[in-house]
Amino acid sequence: MKPQVLQLNPILIPAVNDKLAERYTVHKFFEVADQAAWLREHGASIVAVTTGGHTGISRAVLEQLPKLKVVAVNGVGTDAVDLAYCRERGLPVTATLGALTEDVADLAIGLLIAACRNLCAGDRFVRGGQWELYPQPSAIPLARRFSGMRIGIVGMGRVGRAVAVRAAAFGCTISYTDLRPMEDVAHRFVTDLLDLARDADALVLCAAADKAEGIVNAAVLDALGPRGFLVNVARGRLVNETDLTAALVAGRIAGAGLDVFVDEPRVPLALRQSDSVTLQAHRASATWETRTAMAEMVLASITQALAGERPAMSLTT
Ligand code: 8YV
Fold it and tell me: What ipTM is given for this predicted complex?
């Protein structure tokens, strides 16, 4: 009998799914109607789990998988997995470190340009036929220039650094905040997020969420101010979404580009109705190139763990 793998989130790459199915019996948990009953019956036979970065796996489910040898996260964020518990159990939790850096940084810049230049509102204006009805240039408000902006990066890890490289190519001035200054980063470090926001035309959130929930609140948004933009490609929980919605609706910040939300896939109506916001459905890593690389890493982690090796991408063992 082949080893039993529990797949909590779909992997969208057919070639990798084929390889998984050749080597393992893969159970698609997301298609199971009564998951509690399924776990009671089959939990003890599962030796590997794959899941998504922001969806993770609950401790309650982990506790029902006594023979588990690896949790292979198809993502870079592991904030939705109880790492301390997995460490105690000696259970490797792997992530797709480095695989999605470039794509996430690309989307951050894309969202920022879209927000500054009102790309989505402009698209709706043309698509909806309003241009023909209101051809005078004053029908569309002037936008803001992205090149040369002062960018405040929150979280100078892999993604933050890749955003800095791109923004620098646009002539932007870059400052950042993190838990501590990074010796190998030449940009200006700012300890306090309020100060970073005050000095920035745009804040770009690239931080892990575990130690930073709700850090972007009304005070930070007011420090960013009515000409400031917010971009979030990290986790929705970094932002107080109620404060953000209120600030956008009242014009206390100029606009936002958001790929992530507090309660995905639910997005507050006021955000969906606002022309100052560009929205994406948590798709920063969703390219063929990156998702293929990520899926291959998941497969490698499972293969290594089930061969009795320490997976190269393990964060806990
Ligand atoms: C993915 C992510 O959407 O890497 C992460 O932490 O949130 C995203 O890249 C997700 O992991 C896909 O399963």
Answer: 0.96
